[in-house]
Design goal:
heterodimer, A: about 270 residues, alpha/beta, 6-stranded mixed β-sheet, 13 helices, B: about 350 residues, mainly alpha, 14 helices
Chain lengths: ~270, ~350
């Protein structure tokens, strides 16, 4: 968007009172044991459950300058896509530190994000990363490319599935798990016709919980043409995960990728040879 | 006998007219007071508590910054956008003698949205210095509004000598065409751009800052001044276009002038605040229900009531779920719609 602001991970002078704009960042603050510095979180911060106890600053892309200032934060820590840019400019004008954490949809990108937040807060995260992040990175790096055809759907819009094309967070998750995104040639999240779904014929369909709920639950969804006509629908190979755990690109996304890689590995010799 | 009856009738009519005029003056006065009150309330309230003592004592630095840099431009913008939209709505409804007309009809909203979505999707490719970046989106929105309104203008003039039905129909066609452009850009946009666009469409005064608010309010002010001059012409047009022409109104010139001025008065607001629903369509009706259809009354009263509505809607939008905000269009309709219904039923039962 217009008005790009520099992304930086320099340690800020005062990180004692943080307003967080982004579910993955809240998750990372808890991961770093820095949750006592949180003053407020945004609407996408639904993990861990305790985060719901903080005041909500609204949606990450629709922040309010005065609303944030009323919490008297020393730092506004936001996701790559926080906004609107005009509001961020207003905040900077009043002297609040505003830090936008870079995001890359890869496993290394998640580790970088954690390191970045740690550096901004002036925390040494080496040990925590070595303990619980590095093993997952190694496991994903060792995952061989899967031969399964996989599609990631966000949900249904008027009965048509909204699929993750290339250059989306969904595509990133699939690549982390070693899977080839069936719709990787599309750009962005795109509605896909029933015919295209049937022709692509995925072995596995990956969906966020909210997507299945929006489709009327798993039972209703299995009846949808876009599901019923595919291998995944026929053999009930539909992988459902928490949306932020899949696509938030915090520590949990690594876990989701490992889980997805395990599922695909198990299906490699049975499901995916069909 | 006849003469006396005539005298009585005349007196009664005159009394009626003066009472109506008096009532209108009272209504306009009350609306002006209400606007002043709304402005003060809006400046004085918000997520950050500000005390007068702290302000003048010089201790409350945060309070002063919030008041001068965040709240003042925001409240000013809300007032001007409300005035511009309601006044344009009133003028266009009068001009087209159609109660369902609003500034959207002449392509202002869809054009501004087209410009905005084009800039959101394509703008990242432009290398622009940061100081200018904040103007890009408003400028693109204004350009889009001007483009679509000009198309409407040229088509309507060419095919049908600019009569009302032609303008309405061409308006529908041009709006539909702008809709195609918006849809195409939405399809091309990535996830982040799409969400930016969604929030832009919902409308908000929260993005207001002096560098964009000042030019926008100046433009809206200019449009308002141009619109408010033509009360007599608008009143005469109510009799029919040919009748107005016999009475010395240059109808074609009047239409050109008023459509362009409406585009300026509403377009500049849409460009910086996004889409604010309800105000342009319904505020003029509210005003007519209160004091009749004479434009000498409807125009100033609409402008004032429009300002009152947007300023108080914005106040609610930013104070109800602190520290987050509600989209302001939701609030304008939530306050406006029940009031409108109440007024309709009251007038019908009287």
């Amino acid at each position: 968007m217009v008005g790009g602001h520099a992304l930086a991970c320099d340690t800020v002078a005062d990180s004692s009172r943080i307003a967080v704009a982004g579910g993955s960042l809240t998750e990372i603050l808890y991961f770093l044991g820095a949750e006592d510095r949180i003053e407020a979180v945004d609407a996408t911060s639904n993990y861990p459950d305790a985060a719901a106890g903080f005041p909500s600053v609204g949606y990450v892309r629709n922040l309010s300058a005065e609303g944030l200032l009323s919490l008297n934060p020393s730092l506004v820590l936001g996701e790559n896509d926080m906004g609107p840019p005009e509001v961020l400019a207003q905040l900077r004008q009043t002297g609040v530190d505003v830090v936008r954490v870079p995001e890359e949809h890869t496993a290394a990108g998640i580790a970088d994000k954690i390191r970045c937040v740690a550096r901004v807060l002036g925390i040494d995260a080496t040990q925590r990363i070595e303990q619980s992040i590095a093993p997952m990175l190694r496991s994903l790096a060792a995952t061989p490319p899967s031969s399964c055809r996989v599609a990631l759907l966000l949900g249904f819009r008027d009965g048509a599935p909204l699929a993750a094309g290339g250059d989306t967070s969904g595509d990133g998750l699939l690549r982390m798990a070693g899977a080839k995104n069936l719709f990787g040639d599309l750009e962005g999240w795109k509605p896909v016709s029933l015919e295209a779904m049937a022709y692509a014929n995925p072995h596995y369909i990956v969906m966020p919980e909210r997507g299945t709920a929006g489709a009327g639950g798993m039972d209703d969804m299995r009846g949808y043409g876009a599901i019923r006509l595919t291998q995944a629908g026929k053999r009930d190979n539909i992988v459902v995960m928490d949306g932020m755990a899949m696509l938030g690109f915090g520590p949990r996304t690594l876990r989701s990728a490992v889980r997805l890689a395990d599922i695909l590995a198990a299906g490699e010799t049975t499901t995916c040879v069909l | 006998m006849n003469a006396i009856a005539e005298q009585l009738g005349l007196r009664r009519r005159r009394a009626f007219r003066t009472s109506l005029q008096g009532r209108r003056a009272v209504i306009v006065g009350c609306l002006a007071l209400a606007l002043a009150a709304a402005l003060l309330l809006a400046l004085g309230n918000g997520a950050v508590p500000i005390s007068l003592a702290g302000l003048f004592g010089g201790e409350d630095d945060l309070g002063r910054t919030v008041l001068t840099e965040l709240r003042s431009p925001r409240v000013l913008l809300a007032a001007f956008v409300g005035m511009g939209l309601a006044l344009s709505g009133a003028v266009l409804q009068g001009l087209f003698r159609n109660p369902l007309t609003d500034p959207g009809l002449i392509g202002v909203s869809s054009g501004a949205a087209l410009g905005a979505v084009a800039m959101i999707v394509l703008g990242s490719a432009l290398a622009v210095p940061n100081a200018l970046a904040q103007y890009l989106l408003p400028l693109a929105a204004i350009a889009g509004a001007a483009l679509v309104t000009t198309c409407l203008f040229l088509f309507a003039r060419r095919y049908g000598r600019f009569n009302i039905v032609t303008v309405l129909l061409v308006g529908i066609a041009v709006n539909a065409f702008a809709g195609v452009g918006i849809g195409a850009f939405q399809f091309l946009s990535d996830d982040a751009q799409l969400r930016t666009l969604t929030f832009w469409m919902m409308g908000s005064f929260g993005r207001a800052s002096w560098p964009t608010v000042l030019p926008a309010t100046a433009l809206i002010g200019l449009g308002v001044l141009l619109l408010i001059r033509d009360v007599r012409g608008l009143d005469l047009v109510q009799l029919g276009e040919s009748e107005a022409r016999y009475l010395g109104v240059e109808v074609a010139a009047l239409k050109r002038r008023l459509i362009l001025a409406s585009a300026v008065a509403s377009g500049a607001g849409v460009a910086v605040a996004g889409m604010i629903g309800f105000v342009g369509l319904v505020v003029p009706h509210l005003v007519r229900l209160m004091g009749g259809a004479s434009h000498r009354f409807v125009l100033p009263a609409s402008a004032l009531l429009g300002g009152v509505l947007t300023v108080s809607a914005d106040l609610l939008a930013r104070t109800v779920i602190v520290p987050a905000e509600i989209p302001v269009s939701l609030v304008t309709s939530a306050i406006g719609a029940p009031f409108f219904l109440w007024l309709i039923t009251r007038v019908r039962t009287q």
